[in-house]
Each structure stands twice: as structure tokens, then as C-alpha cells.
Design brief:
alpha/beta; 12 helices; binds flavin-adenine dinucleotide; five-stranded parallel sheet; FAD/NAD(P)-binding domain; Polyamine Oxidase, Chain A, domain 2; about 30% helix; about 375 residues
């Protein structure tokens, strides 16, 4: 029986798919356009700083991480399960009161929303999600949704949360409630790195076209019995000849401040401002910055200049602009697939008898969704062979 498979793309979806197919006895090669594995989960090391391509946390409650025994390999440092918000010129600390009673005053504060609005949000979490946009589903949670939840979720969906599918949003909220997300000591890339062991990956090879007997790359033809297209939605649609789609884009800025001037480990949000969130990331994982400095990671959705960002940071962190030293920024054009109402939580992975698809756009846009889609593609393919 012929069992040669080419997996296009070494992101989480492609890596998980290749790993499972290999375990099932297939001969698998991954073709990756770039020079490293991990796709959107990448980390650079610059002058002693650990710079992830985007503020990206890993939730140890994700079932695909648990079933792959990945959690124990990641050396995850948990983030505090709360946030700080600038509301009406006051800094309010809110979070899971079961983790710390210090969150209670902020959770109960009127500034973060009325009691009934908070109750309606809890009711929303406990009921089945309607197939509408999140803005409509959470209308009853009024000011609490508008000020707190919406601002937090903007950093999760990397777009206006009002527009996204409520079913998808609830799925991700469920994981946030269940797990305690963290960061690997070695940067976000530790997750794909843990998956690559023993896999055959050909780097710097871009697939240009699918053929009947394999694929055409920028370095010649590669033959195989099956192909798994495990790339982001925009390029996948190009390769599969489907209509073009749009993905959300975001930018993450890195600045250094002298160690000690920011002491909190909490993510800080600003109601109604351009900065989506900002965190002194090396206060959570000390290895992210060299001694004497603190690394600040800041996410925005709009194009802004470094000067504009610095001025927002100064206001958000209540520090002089001169304290922030620019390190680097990453503009990620195709950050996350848009998951709008009506889109199912899982889309089909079979394209034809010999072509399968994987990628976060076929599931809930997240590491869990990417890994799961890779598993589903591997299982569908092996059932066919
Ligand atoms: C800023 C940001 C923050 C995020 N935060 C979180 C978070 O906190 N929690 C969470 O769960 N998820 C988060 N995510 C989402 C998560 O990172 C992605 O859902 C996941 O990494 C997507 O994996 P993938 O394999 O589907 O796609 P990708 O990672 O995009 O992998 C596709 C791979 O295919 C390669 N490729 C593309 N075209 C070709 C070609 N023609 N030939 C060969 N190779 C090709 C690419 O180089 C890439 O390596 C975040 C994403 C971003 C961008």
C-alpha cells in the first residue's frame, strides 16, 4: 500500500498532522517555505531579549497539548489570572477571585460595570451559545461587556469582538476559565519545537501548485500519494483555487524599561484607546529580558508610529516617554482567521481523495484549533489509505 505523504507547512497544524501520520507508519515529509518550524509561533532572541512574534500565551488546559504530553515539556510559567484596566482614570484590578481575593474589590466595583450586567455575563457563560455575533449575544451584559470583556477579547481575537461568532467566542472563553495560560521559559517557539522531534522537514521550500502526483515547489517537483495543505487560510485558498479571504492583522511592539519601574505581572488594558493590551512580560518570565531591564510587550490592531505607541505607553504605565527604549516590532498581516457567525466550529478537512487540509481556520482560531485540525486531517487521511 502506498503511504507517502507531503505536508505543506510546518505550523502547529502541519507538525501535529505529520507527527500522527508518522506514528501510524506513513512516510511523511514536511515542505516549509521559511527557514524555521512553528509558523505563527516564532521567537527571536535579540540582545538578551526573548521576542515572540506577537503576545501569545499557551493554555495548558488545551486537550491537544494534554494528549500529546506537551505541557510537561514546555516549562510554562503561568500568568496571573487577572487584568488591570484603566477605567475613568482609575486603575482597577480584576480577575478570578478563586485565585486571589485581591481581585474581589475590582470585580465588585461599579466602575467595571453594574452587578446585574456581571450576573448576565455569568448566565451567558452557563447557557448554550446562540448563532449570532458576540456583540448581540452580550448586549444584556451592557457596560461590563463594553468596558471589560470586549477590551480583553480584542487582544484574543485580534479584531472587534462584537463581530465574531458567539459559539467560537464561548469555546475560547471556556478554555480561559478552565486553564491558567502561561509562557514557556524559552519563548512561544518552545511549543512547535517540542513537536518537531523526529520529523523530516525540508525548509526554504515553497509549494507553488498542487499536481496529480505531488506538488510543484520553487525547487522542482516532489511526488507523493497524499498531500496535506497545512498553511494559513489566505495561502491555502490560493493553492486550492478558492476565493480569497481576509484575516485579522495585528502588531506587537517591544520596548525596554529600567528594571523595577513596572512591578506588576498583570496584563494592562485601556478602555477606548488604540493600545489593545500591554504587559511587562519579563516580570512573568524573567528570562525574557537581560538583567537590569524589563521587557514590555504591547499589542495594537491599527498602523501606528513608534512615537504614537510610546506616548500611549507613557500614559498607560504612568511613566515618562523617555523611560521606554524601542527594541523591535512585528507586524503580522495574517494573524488570525476571521471567525464570523455561521461558520462551524469544525470545517471539513478532506478536499479530495488524495488532498486534505489542516489549519486553525478550519477549527477555533487558536493553538488548540490548529493542532486539532492537524489531528483530524491525519485521521481522515489514514482512514482513506
Ligand atoms: C499575534 C498572535 C497571537 C496569538 N495568540 C494566541 C494565544 O494566546 N493562544 C492561542 O491559542 N493562539 C494564539 N494565536 C493563534 C495561533 O498562533 C495560531 O492559531 C496557530 O499558530 C496557527 O497554526 P497553523 O499551523 O494553522 O498555521 P501557521 O502557523 O500559519 O503555519 C503555516 C505554515 O505554512 C508555511 N507556508 C505558508 N505557505 C507555504 C507554502 N506555499 N509552501 C510551504 N510552506 C508554506 C508558513 O511558513 C507556516 O510555517 C495567536 C496568533 C497570533 C498571530
Amino acid at each position: 500500500m502506498s503511504r507517502e505523504v507531503l505536508v505543506i507547512g510546518a505550523g502547529l497544524a502541519g507538525l501535529n498532522c505529520a507527527k500522527i501520520l508518522k506514528e501510524k507508519g506513513f512516510q511523511v515529509k514536511i515542505l516549509e517555505a521559511s527557514s524555521r518550524a512553528g509558523g505563527r509561533m516564532a521567537t527571536d532572541f535579540v540582545d538578551g531579549f526573548t521576542l515572540d512574534h506577537g503576545f501569545q500565551v499557551i493554555n495548558p488546559a488545551y486537550p491537544e497539548l494534554i494528549s500529546n504530553h506537551l505541557v510537561e515539556k514546555l516549562d510554562l510559567i503561568p500568568l496571573p489570572k487577572g487584568i488591570e484596566m484603566q477605567i475613568d482614570n482609575r486603575l482597577i484590578l480584576m480577575g478570578d477571585p478563586f485565585k486571589s481575593l485581591f481581585y474581589l474589590p475590582g470585580d465588585l466595583s461599579k466602575s467595571s460595570g453594574r452587578f446585574m450586567e456581571k450576573l448576565r455575563f455569568i448566565q451567558f457563560l452557563s447557557r448554550e451559545a446562540p448563532e449570532v455575533d458576540l456583540g448581540t449575544a452580550l448586549e444584556a451584559a451592557g457596560g461590563f461587556y463594553q468596558k471589560v470583556i470586549r477590551n480583553f477579547l480584542m487582544g484574543v481575537f485580534l479584531c472587534d469582538p462584537d463581530l465574531v461568532s458567539t459559539r467560537m467566542a464561548k469555546e475560547l472563553l471556556y478554555w480561559f476559565v478552565k486553564g491558567n495560560p502561561g509562557l514557556p521559559r524559552a519563548g512561544a517557539q518552545a511549543l512547535p519545537a517540542a513537536l518537531t522531534q523526529g520529523l523530516d522537514i525540508e525548509f526554504n521550500t515553497r509549494v507553488l501548485k498542487l499536481l496529480d502526483s505531488g506538488v510543484a515547489t520553487d525547487d522542482g517537483v516532489r511526488k507523493a500519494d497524499f498531500v496535506v495543505v497545512a498553511i494559513d487560510e489566505v495561502i491555502a485558498k490560493e493553492l486550492l483555487g478558492k476565493p480569497m479571504v481576509e484575516m485579522n492583522s495585528s502588531t506587537t511592539w517591544y520596548h525596554a524599561v529600567p528594571q523595577g519601574v513596572i512591578s506588576t505581572k498583570h496584563l494592562r488594558l485601556d478602555v477606548g484607546q488604540e493600545v489593545v493590551n500591554s504587559i511587562a512580560i519579563s516580570n512573568v518570565v524573567a528570562d525574557y529580558a537581560p538583567s537590569g531591564q524589563t521587557l514590555v510587550s504591547t499589542t495594537t490592531l491599527k498602523d501606528q508610529t513608534e512615537k504614537e505607541i510610546r506616548s500611549e505607553l507613557a500614559r498607560l504605565w504612568e511613566l515618562p516617554e523617555s523611560k521606554f527604549e524601542y527594541i523591535k516590532h512585528y507586524q503580522i498581516k495574517n494573524s488570525l482567521p476571521k471567525h464570523l457567525p455561521g461558520k462551524p466550529l469544525l470545517s471539513p478537512v478532506k478536499v479530495s481523495e488524495r488532498v486534505f487540509a489542516a489549519g486553525d481556520y478550519l477549527a477555533v482560531p487558536s493553538q488548540q484549533g490548529a493542532l486539532l485540525s492537524g489531528r483530524l486531517a491525519a485521521e481522515a487521511l489514514s482512514a482513506k489509505s
